[in-house]
Design brief:
3-stranded mixed sheet; 3-stranded antiparallel sheet; 14 helices
């Protein structure tokens, strides 16, 4: 028991000692931690102070930099303002100097003007005195002259005027006489120029070709017979003649279309025979067309022979005879080509006789000048060149060939017959009624004539009459005088001549009238 108590007491004592040691150790550790914490706190405080010092230094440095920057800017602004003020001061000084110089100049000018005015006043007084002296001297001289000549001043003036009039009349008469002599010398040359200009302006170019013929029938039942079953008859007619047969709703008419007038004539006569006979079928069509062709060919040759016999032309090649006959079935600008060629041949013969040239050659060239317009096939060669080639091929003389090729200036003229052919061709084509014109172009030409007249001041009305060969212009008497009317007529004619193309000539008549109207009540 005692042992147990001793052990228990020893344990308790040991525990107490242990607890005391632990307490001491804890206190020591706590004090150490407190020391460490105090040291760390001091370090943190020192570091914070150091950082604060650094930040304070940076801010102070930045504030100094900003201060210096603002100071420099202020200095620059001040310097700029000072420079501007200096410039303004310089300008003001310059202006002051300029104004001072101008004022000095003005003073000098005023002084010089005053001196000039004084001089002018002195000169005026001198001039007045001199004028008075001159008047007195003039009066003296006039009196002396009147005494010497026994004439007054008015009588002497009249004699002088009369002498000048007589001298002017003599000078004018001599000038007129000289002008008349010069006009006589140059009249022939000027007349030739006028004729040549008129000839060059006569020929006009149109593009009108006959390419259709109308075949009249008694009733529309014939159209069905011409067409035939399933169109076999009309196909046979077109194949045999080379003509397009147009059967439409046109009452009692059938249209034949082809550029070759001879083919159209063959087709027309063939259809006429078929309709008259009543038998219309392909075999009969071919037979009738063949016979009609033979008849037309014979008729063409007969026409050519009769033409050359009427004109007194001999030795023409048979092929040229056929071509002349074919011209009977061709029209040019609405004018029958054979009639035109016959007319040209007669005109050429007359003109050649007047000029003392070969009449037969002129007639020959006049008749053949348009043979190139009746080719068998389509060609792009101009008709004058084609006709010249045919004439050379069939043995015509060089003068005739050149006249044919040159009558539209396709080649150069080498003989005197060539211009005669050109002139006579233009005369035959340009005479009134020879050729037809498109209605629209004709009306447009009249409108153009009237519009040219209205383009001048003072024109009240303008009328194109005589098929466009005369233009009558009515002007306002208040705006246009008699002399101006003559000038206006000339100006309008020149404007028409330069701006328009027309056959023949256009006469311009300007009418000016003055009316005085009063009413009796």
């Amino acid at each position: 028991m005692t042992i147990i108590l001793t052990l228990v007491g020893g344990c308790i004592l040991g525990a107490a000692v242990t607890f005391g040691v632990l307490k001491f150790l804890e206190k020591k550790a706590v004090s150490k931690k407190m020391k460490d914490a105090h040291i760390a706190a001091k370090k943190i405080i020192n570091r914070a102070k150091k950082e604060a010092d650094d930040i304070k230094k940076d801010k102070i440095f930045q504030a100094k930099e900003k201060f210096f920057e603002l100071k420099n800017k202020h200095k620059e602004e001040v310097s700029q303002r000072e420079s501007k003020i200096a410039d303004i001061e310089n300008r003001i000084r310059q202006k002051e100097s300029q104004t001072s110089t101008e004022l000095s100049k003005n003073k000098k000018l005023n002084q010089s003007l005053e001196s000039k005015i004084n001089r002018n006043k002195q000169l005026e007084t001198k001039l007045v005195a001199q004028e008075k002296e001159l008047e007195q001297l003039t009066e003296k001289k006039v009196k002396e002259l009147e005494i010497i000549s026994n004439l007054s001043a008015e009588e002497a003036k009249q004699q002088l005027v009369q002498t000048l009039k007589d001298q002017a009349k003599s000078d004018a008469l001599s000038y007129v006489q000289q002008t008349l002599e010069e006009a006589k010398l140059t009249a022939k040359q000027e007349a030739k120029k006028v004729v040549i200009n008129a000839i060059q302006r006569v020929g006009t170019e149109e593009a009108i070709e006959n390419c259709v013929s109308v075949f009249n029938i008694e009733n529309d039942d014939v159209k069905g017979r011409i067409i035939g079953r399933e169109g076999r008859n009309i196909r046979a007619i077109e194949a045999a003649t080379g003509v397009e047969v147009i059967v439409d709703d046109t009452p009692e008419a059938i249209i034949l279309s082809c550029f070759d007038a001879v083919r159209r004539e063959i087709a027309r006569l063939s259809i006429h025979r078929l309709v008259t006979d009543g038998r219309i079928h392909p075999a009969r069509i071919e037979e009738v067309v063949r016979k009609t062709k033979k008849q037309i060919e014979d008729e063409i040759i007969d026409i050519g022979k009769r033409t050359v016999i009427d004109l007194g032309i001999h030795g023409l090649h048979p092929e040229l005879l056929k071509i002349v006959g074919r011209m009977r079935y061709r029209s040019s600008y609405g004018q029958n080509l054979l009639k035109h060629s016959r007319e040209v041949a007669k005109l050429c013969g007359i003109m050649a006789a007047e000029l003392g040239l070969n009449v037969k050659l002129a007639k020959r060239a006049g008749l053949l000048h348009d043979i190139g317009k009746v080719p068998d096939t389509e060609t792009d060669v101009p008709h004058a060149i084609l006709g010249m080639q045919w004439a050379e091929k069939y043995g015509e003389k060089p003068e005739v060939c050149n006249a044919i090729g040159a009558h539209h200036d396709e080649i150069e003229m080498t003989s005197m017959i060539s211009p005669i052919i050109q002139v006579c061709d233009a005369i035959s084509g340009a005479r009134p009624g020879a050729r037809r014109q498109v209605l629209d172009s004709y009306i447009q030409r009249l409108k153009d004539l009237e519009s040219i007249a209205f383009g001048f001041n003072g024109v009240r009305k303008a009328y194109a009459i005589q098929a466009g060969r005369e233009l009558r212009v009515i002007v306002e008497s208040e705006k246009v005088s008699d002399e101006k009317a003559a000038t206006l007529s000339f100006e309008i004619s020149q404007k028409i001549q330069t701006d328009m193309t027309y056959p023949g000539q256009v006469k311009v008549t300007v009418i000016r009238e003055t009316r005085a109207v009063n009413i009796a009540k």
